[in-house]
Design goal:
Strand content: under 5%
Order of helices and strands: HHHHHHHHHHHHHHHHHHHHH
Number of helices: 21
Helix content: over 70%
Structural class: mainly alpha
Radius of gyration: 25 Å
Length: 423
C-alpha cells in the first residue's frame, strides 16, 4: 500500500522521506537499535501536549466533557474534606467538628455520575435502538478497567500500615482478602480494620455494577412519562426506606442505602439519550447557583432523601446552563476530573503523609488561613503522585484492548529470547 497514510505509520518510510532515498532502508530494518532511535527522533518532534495525555480513554470514543467536569467537583469535595479531617490534630483547632456525613457528599455525587455512565449503553439499547449490550464484555470491561489500580492501592496502603503503624500482615490479611473481593463492608463493616479506608464506596459501586443489567429494565418502559415517573417514585421510596439502614454496621455502606443516588444518574441518562435539542439557558445557571450549596448544607436524614433529586437538576444544569456547560467542559477541569479514580485511591494516603511534615506551619491563629496554607502545600503533592499513577497505570487500563495488546507484546518478545544467535 502506497501513499501518505502508509508513510505516516511506517517509521522506515518516514525516515526515508525526510532523509532522502539514499538512506538504506534495509539497514534500518535489520538493526533494532536503529528503529528505536528513529522512533525516539519522531517522538522528540512531537509537542509535549501530545506526549503527555491526561484525557480519558473512553469506550467507543464517547467523551462527555461535562461528566468529567462533575467528577472534578466530586473529587474536590472528597479531597478537601479529608484535608480538613487530618488537620483535626493540627496546629490550630477546628472551628467546626468534622462531619463524616458531609464528607460523603462527594461520594454521593460520584454515585450519580456512575448511574449516568453505566446507564448510557443500556438506555441507548432500549431508547435509541443501539446494539444489545454484551454482558460478558460489560463485566470484563469493569474488571480490566478497575482492578489493576485498585489492587495496587491495596498493596500501597498495606505497606504504609506495616511501616508507619506497625500493623502486622496477619492482622491485615483477612481484611485484605475481604477487600480484594469487595466484601469488606458486608463482613466487617465499612471502616473497622479496613486497609484502604476510602475503598468502602468502591464496594457499593461494584454492587451497582452487578445490578445494572437488571435495573436497566426500567428503560424498557416505552412511555417516557411513565418511565420517568417510575424512576422518580423508586428514588423517593428507596431514600425514605433506606434511612433506617444508617445505623447498620453492614448495610449502611451498601447499594441498599445508596440506590436512590444511582437512579438519579439513570434519570439524567434517560433525559440525555432521548433529548432532541437542548437549548442552553442562563436560567439553568441561576438554578445551579442556588442548588450547589445545598449539597453540603442539608442535614443527614433530609439530605439523604432530597439530594438525589437535587443531583438530577444540577447534572442537567451542567449540560443546559450556558455558564455551567462551559465551566464543566474546561480542559483543566475535565483532565483532573478524568483521573479522579487515581486521586480517590491514593489521596488520603498522600494527605496523611504530607500533613506530618507541614502541620506545624501556620501564620497567625485563624484556622481558615491555616487550612488554605496547608492545602497549598498538600494538594500539589497529591496531584503530582496521582497524576503519575494515572499516566502509568490507570490511563493505560482505560484502553479496553490493553490485556490483548500486552499479550501480543509479550509474544513478540518471546522469539527474540528463544532465537539462537547467528554469526
Amino acid at each position: 500500500m502506497n501513499g501518505t497514510a502508509s508513510n505516516s505509520i511506517n517509521p522506515v518510510l518516514e525516515i526515508r522521506s525526510k532523509c532522502g532515498a539514499e538512506f538504506p532502508a534495509k539497514r534500518v530494518r535489520r538493526h533494532v537499535r536503529s528503529r528505536i532511535l528513529a522512533t525516539d527522533i519522531m517522538l522528540s518532534c512531537m509537542p509535549a501536549s501530545r506526549m503527555v495525555q491526561f484525557k480519558r480513554i473512553t469506550t467507543q470514543k464517547r467523551f462527555i466533557p461535562q461528566i468529567d467536569g462533575l467528577r472534578f467537583v466530586a473529587i474536590a469535595s472528597v479531597v478537601l474534606f479529608h484535608v480538613y479531617a487530618v488537620l483535626e490534630r493540627g496546629a490550630i483547632p477546628l472551628p467546626i467538628p468534622f462531619n463524616t456525613d458531609l464528607a460523603k457528599r462527594g461520594v454521593e455525587l460520584f454515585f450519580g455520575i456512575s448511574g449516568f455512565i453505566l446507564g448510557v449503553p443500556f438506555a441507548s439499547r432500549y431508547l435509541a435502538g443501539a446494539p444489545k449490550v454484551k454482558l460478558q464484555q460489560y463485566f470484563l470491561r469493569r474488571l480490566t478497567r478497575l482492578e489493576p489500580p485498585y489492587f495496587l492501592s491495596l498493596f500501597a496502603w498495606a505497606a504504609m500500615q506495616d511501616i508507619v503503624a506497625h500493623r502486622s500482615i496477619a492482622d491485615m490479611a483477612p481484611h485484605l482478602a475481604a477487600s480484594a473481593v469487595y466484601m469488606h463492608n458486608l463482613i466487617f463493616g465499612a471502616f473497622p480494620g479496613a486497609v484502604n479506608g476510602v475503598a468502602w464506596s468502591l464496594e457499593v459501586e461494584v454492587q451497582f455494577y452487578i445490578l445494572v443489567p437488571l435495573l436497566a429494565m426500567l428503560f424498557a418502559i416505552s412511555n417516557a412519562w411513565a418511565r420517568r415517573a417510575v424512576i422518580l417514585v423508586v428514588m423517593l421510596v428507596a431514600g425514605l426506606l433506606s434511612n433506617r439502614l444508617y445505623s447498620s454496621l453492614h448495610f449502611h455502606a451498601s447499594i441498599a442505602y445508596y440506590l436512590a443516588f444511582f437512579l438519579a444518574g439513570f434519570l439524567v441518562c434517560d433525559l440525555y439519550i432521548t433529548r432532541r435539542e437542548w437549548k442552553q439557558s442562563f436560567l439553568w445557571d441561576v438554578l445551579a447557583l442556588g442548588l450547589w450549596p445545598l449539597v453540603w448544607y442539608m442535614g443527614r436524614n433530609f439530605g439523604h432523601v432530597a439530594l438525589p433529586f437535587v443531583i438530577v437538576l444540577l447534572y442537567l444544569a451542567a449540560f443546559r446552563g450556558r455558564i455551567c456547560s462551559t465551566v464543566f467542559s474546561n480542559r483543566v477541569i475535565t483532565d483532573i476530573g478524568g483521573m479522579c479514580y487515581s486521586i480517590y485511591l491514593f489521596h488520603f494516603l498522600i494527605i496523611y503523609g504530607v500533613k506530618h511534615l507541614t502541620a506545624s506551619l501556620h501564620v497567625g491563629q485563624n484556622f481558615w488561613v491555616y487550612f488554605v496554607l496547608q492545602s497549598i502545600m498538600i494538594l500539589p503533592v497529591v496531584m503530582l503522585f496521582c497524576g503519575i499513577f494515572f499516566l502509568l497505570i490507570e490511563r493505560p487500563c482505560m484502553d479496553r484492548e490493553w490485556p490483548r495488546k500486552l499479550w501480543r507484546q509479550a509474544q513478540s518478545l518471546m522469539p527474540f529470547a528463544a532465537r539462537p544467535s547467528q554469526s
